C-alpha cells in the first residue's frame, strides 16, 4: 500500500491525462507549500510533425531510419539529412584512404588496461564496413586531455583490443601527421587499418588550427566522422578537417546517436517521459528547458530536487541547494504547468547524517527533512510513484542519477529506475540513456544490453538534448534531400 507521502502526491494528479489512471484529481492552481511533493499534470500534448519539423535539431538527421522516424505518416515533407558512410558506393571507397575520426577515449587503469571497451566496440561497425569495401583506414582518436606528447596518453593500449574485435592485426603509428603517416598510408593494403597516435598530442587539435587540419587531411581521400562523444568539440579532427576532405560523411555510430537523441526525442512515440537527475540544477537547466518543449512527463531526481523543494518553501536540511537558482526552479515549475507537462518531484527521500558511504540514513517524506541531514537518494514511495508513471509511457529518456549512486547505500533509487527502464524496454518502450553517470548506473545493474539506446557521449548527448548544434555534425555534408 502507498504510504501517506505518496498518497499526498497522488492527490495532486488530475484526471485529464492520456496516460492517466483513475487516481488523477484536478491540479490545484497554487501548490500548497506544505504539500510536497509537487505533481503538476495536465492533458498530454501531442506534437504533430509540424512541431517536429520546426525543430532545428531535425536538420541533423542522417540515417534513412531517421527519415522514416521523422516522416512517419507525413507525405511530401523533405527531411534534411547528413550524408552517411552507408550512402557511399564501393567505387567511392575501394582503394581510397579514409580519415576516420572515432572516439576511442576509453578509461584505462593504472596499468593501462582498458576498463571499459564500450567506445571501441561502438566504433567497430563503421571500421568493418570501410574494410569490407576495400578502403584503407586511417583511424584517429584522442585519449584523455594530454598537454603535449605524454606517453601515458598514447593509444598503444588500444591496439590488442582493436585487432581482436576487427579480426586483423592493427598497426599503430607513432604520430598522426607527417612523413611516417604518408609512408604507412601508402603501404596500407585495401581493407587495412592504421591507428594514428593521439591527435591531442598536438595543441593545434583543440585550437582547430587550419594548418594542422590540412596536415591531418593530407594523405586521405575522404573523411568519416563516427566520434559522437567528441562531436560537440570544434576541433581540427572533428570539424576543421572537413574543409579539406570531400566528401565528409557520418559513420554508423554517429547516425545511431542522432537517430535516437534527435529523431526519437523530436518525434517520439507518446506518452514521452524524461527522467532528469544529477547533482545540480545549474548543469541541467538547458536540458530541462529543452525537454519541457517535448515531453509529456518530467521526473526529477538527484541533488537538484532540493533546490526545487526550497523554492517551494520546504526545509531541506543540509542537502545540496543552489541558492541562486531558487527563482529559476520556481520558473521551471511554472513553465511545466503552463506547457501541460506533468512534472513530478520525489515524494520521499533517503537522508544521511553526512556525505559518506557509511553515513547513518533514514527515509522521510520530502517535506520532513530535519536540520543537519541531507537527501542523498529518492525513497521507496518515489520509486513506486515514478515506476507507475513510467508504465504509462512509450518513450523514455534518462539523464542523470537519482542519488549518490557511487555509495551503495544511496544507489537504490538509481538502480531501481535502471531496472524499471529495462523492464519497459522488454515491453517495447523506447528507452534512451543519455550518457554520463546514468550509463554507468545502467551498466552497473547489468541491463545496458536491453535498452533501446545507450549514448556513448556524456557532454555531446547533453548538448544535443539541450537543443544545441554539434560542430562535428554541422560540418558534415548534407545528404541529398529525400521526400518522405
Ligand atoms: N542528492 C544528491 N546530493 C548530492 N549529489 C548527488 C545527489 N544525487 C546525485 N548526485 C551526484 O550527481 C552526480 C552526477 O551528476 P551529473 O554530472 O549532473 O550527472 P550526469 O553525469 O549523469 O550528467 C553523481 O556524482 C551523483 O553522486
Ligand atoms: O569522454 C568524452 O566526453 P564525456 O566524458 O562527456 O562523455 C569525449 O571523449 C570528449 O572528451 P573531452 O571532454 O575531453 O573533449
UniProtKB/TrEMBL annotation:
One BP term from GO: glycolytic process
Question: Which Pfam families does the entry link to?
Answer: PGK (PF00162)
- What enzyme class is recorded for this protein? transferase
This protein's record includes keyword Acyltransferase: no
* Pathway(s) this gene product operates in, as recorded in its UniProt entry: Carbohydrate biosynthesis; Calvin cycle
Assembly, per entry: Monomer.
Q: What is this protein called?
A: Phosphoglycerate kinase
Naturally occurring in which organism (per UniProt): Dioscorea zingiberensis
Amino acid at each position: 500500500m502507498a504510504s501517506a507521502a505518496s498518497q499526498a502526491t497522488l492527490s495532486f494528479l488530475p484526471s485529464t491525462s492520456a496516460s492517466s489512471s483513475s487516481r488523477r484529481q484536478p491540479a490545484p492552481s497554487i501548490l500548497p507549500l506544505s504539500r510536497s511533493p509537487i505533481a503538476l499534470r495536465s492533458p498530454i500534448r501531442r506534437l504533430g510533425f509540424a512541431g517536429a519539423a520546426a525543430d532545428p535539431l531535425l536538420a541533423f538527421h542522417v540515417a534513412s531510419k531517421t527519415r522514416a522516424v521523422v516522416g512517419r505518416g507525413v507525405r511530401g515533407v523533405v527531411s534534411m539529412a547528413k550524408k552517411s558512410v552507408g550512402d557511399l558506393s564501393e567505387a567511392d571507397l575501394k582503394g581510397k584512404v579514409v580519415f576516420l575520426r572515432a572516439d576511442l577515449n576509453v578509461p584505462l587503469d593504472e596499468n593501462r588496461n582498458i576498463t571499459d571497451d564500450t567506445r571501441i566496440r561502438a566504433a567497430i561497425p563503421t571500421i568493418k564496413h570501410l574494410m569490407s569495401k576495400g578502403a584503407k583506414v586511417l583511424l584517429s582518436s584522442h585519449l584523455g586531455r594530454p598537454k603535449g606528447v605524454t606517453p601515458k596518453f598514447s593509444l598503444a593500449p588500444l591496439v590488442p583490443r582493436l585487432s581482436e574485435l576487427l579480426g586483423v592485426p592493427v598497426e599503430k603509428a607513432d604520430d598522426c601527421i607527417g612523413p611516417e603517416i604518408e609512408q604507412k598510408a601508402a603501404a596500407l593494403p585495401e581493407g587495412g587499418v592504421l591507428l594514428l597516435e593521439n591527435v591531442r598530442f598536438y595543441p593545434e587539435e583543440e585550437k582547430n588550427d587550419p594548418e594542422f587540419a590540412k596536415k591531418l587531411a593530407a594523405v586521405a581521400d575522404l573523411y568519416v566522422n563516427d566520434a559522437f562523444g567528441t562531436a560537440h568539440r570544434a576541433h581540427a579532427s572533428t570539424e576543421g578537417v572537413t574543409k579539406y576532405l570531400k566528401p565528409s560523411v557520418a559513420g554508423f555510430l554517429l547516425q545511431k546517436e542522432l537517430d535516437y537523441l534527435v529523431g526519437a526525442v523530436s518525434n517520439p512515440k507518446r506518452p514521452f517521459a524524461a527522467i532528469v537527475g544529477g547533482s545540480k540544477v545549474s548543469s541541467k537547466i538547458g536540458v530541462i528547458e529543452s525537454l519541457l518543449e517535448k515531453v509529456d512527463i518530467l521526473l526529477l531526481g538527484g541533488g537538484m530536487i532540493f533546490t526545487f523543494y526550497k523554492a517551494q518553501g520546504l526545509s531541506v536540511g543540509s542537502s545540496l541547494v543552489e541558492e541562486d537558482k531558487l527563482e529559476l526552479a520556481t520558473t521551471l515549475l511554472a513553465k511545466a504547468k503552463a506547457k501541460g507537462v506533468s512534472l513530478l518531484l520525489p515524494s520521499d527521500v533517503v537522508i544521511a547524517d553526512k556525505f559518506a558511504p557509511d553515513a547513518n540514513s533514514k527515509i522521510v517524506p520530502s517535506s520532513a527533512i530535519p536540520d543537519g541531514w541531507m537527501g542523498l537518494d529518492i525513497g521507496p514511495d518515489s520509486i513506486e510513484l515514478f515506476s507507475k508513471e513510467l508504465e504509462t509511457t512509450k518513450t523514455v529518456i534518462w539523464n542523470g542519477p537519482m542519488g549518490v549512486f557511487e555509495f551503495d547505500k544511496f544507489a537504490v533509487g538509481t538502480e531501481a529506475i535502471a531496472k524499471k527502464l529495462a523492464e519497459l524496454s522488454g515491453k517495447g518502450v523506447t528507452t534512451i540513456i543519455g550518457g554520463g553517470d546514468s550509463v554507468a548506473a545502467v551498466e552497473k545493474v547489468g541491463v545496458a544490453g536491453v535498452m533501446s539506446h545507450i549514448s556513448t557521449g556524456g557532454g555531446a548527448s547533453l548538448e544535443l538534448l539541450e537543443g544545441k548544434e554539434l560542430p562535428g555534425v554541422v560540418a558534415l555534408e548534407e545528404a541529398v534531400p529525400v521526400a518522405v
